[in-house]
């Protein structure tokens, strides 16, 4: 007994490939509705790996600035520590030890000259210091002029009183010499500290 003829497409479904009705049946990994590579994804975000590189100087990973970005310790530039000449002289306001020596000669020498001569020669040592070093060093000039003006005044007074003191047992002359010695020593102590000393009871004969 023969079978009646079957209509087309009614045969064994296992003999024919399935219809491509699902996304998994396509050979490609992307479904027909997936966006193309490089196109923005859902919500306007670019796909992974599609962000532009950062602009400007960015710190390396870890958040630390690049090497060499820190200032050198202490605020000095590399190799920029002050040289020996930038620290000044021996101290006390003197450029060198010779200036200090002449300043001490002007003050202490005035006291010594007044002591030896009993007053009239107290100006000699300050005058020598002024002539020997005053033109080369403004500091020595300042000290020598202060001592010289003081000693000139009191040397004149001592000289005059020497004649008057013959009748007064030299008491006025002794007082003058004590004044010369006392303030000369004070001026020398100030000069040793590097401080100019202004003599009391002094007149600026020389400027």
List the helices and strands and how they pair.
Blueprint: H1 97-117, H2 124-133, H3 138-164, H4 171-192
Helix pairs in contact: 1-2, 1-3, 1-4, 2-3, 3-4
Summarize the structure.
This protein is an all-alpha fold and 207 residues long.
Description:
- This protein is mainly alpha-helical.
- The protein is 39% helix and 0% strand.
- The chain is built from four helices and no strands.
- Helix 1 (97-117) runs antiparallel to helix 2 (124-133) and helix 3 runs antiparallel to helix 4.
- The protein is rod-shaped.
Number of strands: 0
Number of helices, where a helix is a run of at least 4 consecutive DSSP H or I residues? 4
Question: Roughly what fraction of the amino acids lie in strands?
Answer: under 5%
Sheet of most strands: none
Question: Helicity range of the residues?
Answer: 25-40%
Can you tell me the residue ranges where pLDDT is under 50 for at least 5 consecutive residues?
75-89
**Helix-strand makeup class:** mainly alpha
Overall shape: rod-shaped
Average pLDDT for all residues:
73
Task: Report, as a whole number of angstroms, the end-to-end distance.
Answer: 156 Å
Backbone CA Rg: 53 Å
Order of helices and strands: HHHH
